[in-house]
Amino acid sequence: MLDDRVRAVLEDTPLGRFLFAVVSPQNDCGVLELGSCATIWLGAGVRSFSGRVVTVDADPALRARVAEAGLEEWVEVVESLEPVEDVFDVVVIAPGQDGAALFPRVRELVEPGALIVSASPLDAPGLLSVGVPLDPPLELSVVLE
Question: Which of 16, 20, 27, 108 is the 20 to 30 Å CA partner of 4?
Fold first, then answer.
């Protein structure tokens, strides 16, 4: 699953490994990543079963890293969340992003059963959340309604 091209640009982090484990066994998994924290891990994870990642990040170097890893077919980097219209199975709100402020827009892009992974707590109705003791600590929230 992790070929030499991916390994060459991969930052080996517990967060990346965890997110890879979340998305890799899912068929046709749609992932929205807000801020880049594990883009290469996510792209490598979804390519096994025809998934895709949309990463919202304005850093032009990220596109180059995705291309260097050979993941352009599975990862799309966009500069803004505004034009994103798809429905996603997993949303990753990167550390440093304000999950509470992003949640109203994220909620429009998911259906019940979706998983939201965030480093900041999401206090919203219709979510079932649990903490994960990683570095940084994560909150996993399942959309119930």
Answer: 27
Which spans in the chain are helix H? Answer: 4-9, 14-23, 39-46, 60-68, 99-107
Comparing CA positions, the residue from 78, 85, 11, 24 lying closest to residue 50 is 24
Number of domains in the chain: 1
Question: What's the domain range around 87?
Answer: 4-143
Phi, psi at 68, each rounded to 5°: -60, -35
| Cα Rg of the chain (Å, integer) | 14
Average pLDDT of the residues of the chain: 94
- CATH (domain of 99): 3.40.50.150
Structural contact between residues 116 and 143, judged by C-beta atoms closer than 8 angstroms: yes
Asked whether the predicted pLDDT for residue 1 surpasses 80, the reply is no
Alpha-carbon dihedral sign for residues 140, 111, 71, 39: negative
CA 35 distance to own-chain centroid: 9
